[in-house]
Amino acid sequence: MLSHGQVVRLIFGLKLRELRQERGLTPAEMARACDVSVSYLNEIEKGKKYPKADKILSLSKVLGVSYDQLVSLTLSRRLEPISELLQSDLLKEFPLEMFGLDPLRIVELIANAPAKMNAFISTLFEIARNYEMRQENFFLAALRSFQEMHDNYFEELEQDARTFVVEHSLAAAEPPDRTELERVLTEQYGYTLDRDGLAGYAHLGRLRSVFQPKSRRLLLRQGLSGAQEGFVLGRELAFNYLNLKDRPYVNASFPVRSFDEVLNNFKASYFAGALLMDEETLVRDLTALFAAKTWEPAALLALLTRYDVSPEMFMQRITNLLPRHFGLQSLFFLRFDQANASADYRLTKELHLSRLHNPHGNELHEHYCRRWISVRLLAELRQQPLATGAPAYTLGAQRSRYPNGDEYLCLTLARAGTAIEPAVSVTVGLLANDTLRQKVGFLDDPAIIVKEVNETCERCTIPDCEVRAAAPLEVERRQRQQELQDAIAALVNEV
Q1: Together in a domain, 194 and 111
Q2: Contact between residue 451 and residue 399 where contact means Cβ atoms under 8 Å apart
Q3: Which contacts qualify for 191-198: CB closer than 8 Å, 24 or more apart?
């Protein structure tokens, strides 16, 4: 992260360099006129040093500008995009060090070639505006990259969860009792739990919890399932036990204030998953599930029931463990929401390990392939009556084959919608390779449906698709483009 001081030094250096060049002064001429060394002037222009007031006054006189004009944080119109980036929360909060990037190196790149960097930054801003990308989009993308760098497994957080269990005398091999989690929150961290406080806020909709830091009161929505409440309690314990200060105060996704908030929210959620689903126990259960020679949906549903967690929590948790304990690094996780039967399918969470797999998100307002099991199970749930109490679940497995030759074993859990919550499907897709064949005994079970699939209807060449939701417009556009290129080539080469 770039500090405020680094930003101030860099802007001052960029402005000084631009004004010097506009006056036609070489670094040596400028240094002599201001009675400083060339090396010192060079360090100022690169943002490494900030001169004292008397030197700033001397520089301003030589350049023919006022003292205030020279020290202001406003750059010329030509360098305005650089100024916008440097003073934005994005660069101040973006975790450069987490990706092995030295902030000083970024400063040096900008200082050495401001015109080129300005063009590059302008391009990024234009793309961001055109696709309505916000600061939080960059933060969430950085978080996903951070997860991918570590195969979505974090030993320190796993150990923290194990230590917590020991310190509070919880049963390690069994899912912890929610009353015990509540006891720790109230007795050790001074919480008060209020299960009626949100009843008067119907407009908050899906909001499951709100934490009021001044009174340390945790408001819980009435009617939460045991799984939902357990996750909320686990997250609150994590924020306190791990001493995570920058944090969201609600469970839903709201505009974020900093990358630290995004990262800490992830850590707390990971800790809650590790607390509710013990690593060693779940690995043993998954080993037994995968060893079966036939696909047994009831066995997967039994695990969901045993751990008393939501489908999303369970499927996200196994993405932590499959790479580390089963060698299955090539996988993806998708979460789809659908508010009602006539609404679009929205890809609301996505994670790819090892590479960008098929399927992946598409922000071009195209129609996701209806042959995906993620979408198909949601459609099947829509045929059932709207859930009024506990939502109905369905699950399934599918081998999805893409035009590029990739094949994935997709395991999907879906939950029916309620009057206030959308229907949700969560999928873990595993690349069908030699490692998967060694680890998953039921991969070739004929009971698992095999489907030819594609990314979106607009990009799909499957003829007579029974569930096509849109014409193959992108395929047709590419065909027209190819025909045009062929015609031009023929014309150019005509004798």
Answers
A1: no
A2: yes
A3: 191/216, 191/217, 191/218, 191/236, 192/216, 192/217, 192/218, 193/217, 193/218, 193/220, 194/218, 194/219, 194/220, 195/220, 195/222, 196/222, 198/222
Per-residue pLDDT reduced to its tens digit, 53-65: 999 999 999 999 9
Per-residue pLDDT at 144: 87
Rounded to 10 deg, the angle between the 311-326 and 259-276 helix axes is 80
Among the three residues 217, 251, 276, which one is the final residue of a domain in this structure? 276
Number of domains comprising the chain: 3
User: What gap in Å lies between CA 424 and CA 412, rounded to an integer?
Assistant: 10
277-298: pLDDT as tens digits: 999 999 999 999 999 999 999 9
Beta-strand (E) ranges in 306-360? 331-338, 346-353
CA distance 294 to 292: 5
Cis-peptide, bond into residue 359, ω within 30° of zero: yes
Amino acid in the structure at residue 232: V
- The upper half-sphere exposure of residue 242, i.e. CA atoms within 13 Å in the direction of its Cβ, equals 27
CB-based contact 313:227 (threshold 8 Å): yes
Domain of residue 15 covers 4-133
E strands, 402-472, where? 407-415, 423-431, 449-452
Q: Looking at this protein, which amino acid is placed at residue 440?
A: V
Residue 38, CA distances (Å) to 16, 28, 218, 308, 391 in order: 14, 6, 60, 69, 72
H or E segment to which residue 400 belongs: strand 393-401
Tens-digit pLDDT profile for residues 38-53: 999 999 988 889 999 9
The answer to whether 268 and 251 have CB atoms below 8 angstroms apart is no
**Are 227 and 290 within one domain?**
no
Same domain, 110 and 162: no
Tens-digit pLDDT profile for residues 400-422: 999 989 999 999 999 888 777 88
* Token pair recorded at residue 50: 């900030």
